[in-house]
Specification:
Blueprint lengths: L1 E5 L10 H14 L3 E6 L19 E5 L2 E5 L10 H14 L1 H8 L5 E6 L5 H11 L2 E6 L3 H7 L6 H15 L4 E4 L2 H9 L7 E3 L6 H13 L13 H5 L6 E8 L7 H9 L6 E8 L3 H7 L6 E4 L7 H6 L3 E4 L13 H7 L4 E4 L5 H6 L3 E4 L4 H12 L2 H18 L2 H25 L3
Parallel strand pairs: 1-2, 1-5, 2-4, 5-6, 6-7, 7-8, 9-10, 9-12, 10-11, 12-13, 13-14
Antiparallel strand pairs: 3-4
């Protein structure tokens, strides 16, 4: 099949949507499909274009068998409501010439990754012009999240933007998302049930298991090769210490101030160490809040090949989340946490899909409630058997539902069926 993917984030970004879009494109190309991607220079989560790329130029490259065309965009130093909108709009406009040129190659499917929804109108139009099917994959309901988190405000503005969003979503032949609750939200926005597809994020469970096994075999982190680096030794953390870890994007939706408050509440626990790894515009704020706290360590965002080793060096993973965001986004970092075979303490309201995903594989506390998270962490700190039991359940769940080949083979099957129906419809047209 000829598959065209349009999305602002792509490899070599190490986290978030770009990571998954890159892995999906490479996996499909390795299976023999003709895959092209239109994207921007890598800039996330640092909100700074990476070295070797330019924000002001059109460029092209071949990456792991995928044709990649990059369009210029504006990247703000500090993303906010209006700045974020201008940022997304700049890519939607600059990517138009690339999209029209790619449509001339007559792809079978045009897949647009949300965010940004700004790209959806052009993607639908291009698909219709070249006779392709249009597929919208939702990683994040950016419109709903922006209003829920206060990045955008105003009742009339929300009504207008939501109405446009509903109209656009109903134009797509297929709409997929990463969780059942996010699919339900698409249904509420008027997408027909027959057009919905579950496409969760994924992880190489085999690599995660190998790192977890190496960590256990060699003193929770010391390993025989660089792929399972001894992060504890690097940070000066004793082997008998308990490590509570957060690793991922450090942005506004995560509610990272909770982490600093938990570390402050438990500052007198001598065997407890905190490791916070990642990048984003809130990292400096978090680091400043932890400046005078003992046993708090910071790491930069780690390369993808070393992430399983890092996650396996934790004893407990912390997953804070802002109230109201749990069913608007499903944190992709959760899958890596589960696959590492370590329990997760998650801030999420009862009844949300995020809370359901963690229940039985960790502990769920109210969002933005640092004392509740501290109490849960203290419980696991003092009960190694409960940590082991919950961690084993987490690893089993990840293997069953989120292994890379399991998820992407379902995607490939859906794409092939999609194309067969299109071919049949063409054959049935009167000549």
């Amino acid at each position: 099949m000829k598959i065209l993917i349009l999305g602002i984030n792509f490899a070599p970004e190490l986290t978030g949507t770009g990571k998954y879009t890159g892995e999906m494109a490479a996996w499909l190309a390795a299976r023999g499909h003709d895959v092209s991607v239109i994207t921007a220079p890598p800039y996330y989560p640092q909100w700074q274009v990476q070295e070797g790329y330019r924000a002001t130029r059109y460029t092209s490259e071949t990456w792991r068998g995928v044709r990649v065309s990059r369009a210029p965009l504006w990247v703000p130093d500090k993303p906010g409501g209006l700045k974020r909108l201008v940022h997304l709009a700049s890519f939607a406009l600059s990517s138009l010439p690339l999209l029209l040129r790619a449509a001339m190659r007559r792809p079978d499917v045009v897949m647009v990754i949300e965010p940004p929804l700004f790209c959806a109108p052009a993607a639908v139009a291009a698909a219709r012009l070249c006779g392709a099917r249009a597929w919208l994959h939702i990683q994040d309901y950016e419109v709903d999240a922006a209003f829920e988190l206060g990045l955008l405000k105003g009742k009339r503005l929300r009504q207008m933007v939501s109405s446009m969003e509903r109209w656009l979503m109903r134009r797509f032949d297929r709409v997929s998302s990463i969780s059942q609750r996010m699919l339900a939200r698409a249904r509420d926005k008027g997408v027909d049930e027959a057009r919905l597809q579950l496409l969760p994020n994924w992880i190489d469970v085999t690599a995660a298991r190998a790192s977890a096994a190496a960590a256990t075999r060699n003193g929770r982190g010391a390993a025989d090769d660089v792929d399972c680096a001894d992060y504890r030794a690097q940070l000066g953390i004793p082997e008998d210490a308990v490590v509570a870890m957060y690793s991922g994007n450090m942005g506004g939706k995560q509610g990272l101030e909770t982490l600093a408050q938990v570390a402050r509440v438990l500052r007198r626990e001598p065997h407890l160490h905190f490791v916070f790894g990642g990048a984003g515009h809130q990292r400096d704020v978090l680091q400043a809040a932890c400046a005078n706290l003992p046993r708090v360590h910071f790491l930069p965002l780690q390369p993808a090949e070393r992430l399983p080793a890092l996650l396996a060096c934790a004893d407990v993973h912390l997953l804070p989340q802002r109230a109201g965001a749990a069913d608007l986004v499903m944190p992709s970092k959760l899958i890596g946490m589960l696959a590492s075979g370590r329990p997760v303490i998650c801030g999420a309201a009862a009844g949300t899909e995020l809370a359901t995903a963690v229940t039985g594989r960790g502990l769920v506390v109210p969002p933005e409630h640092p004392r509740a998270m501290a109490r849960a962490l203290l419980t696991l700190l003092r009960d190694p058997e409960q940590r082991r039991r919950l961690g084993a359940a987490a690893a089993r769940h990840a293997h069953l539902h989120f292994h890379t080949d399991t998820v992407l083979e379902r995607l490939e099957s859906a794409l092939v069926q999609f194309d067969r129906r299109r071919a049949a419809a063409i054959r049935e047209q009167p000549r």
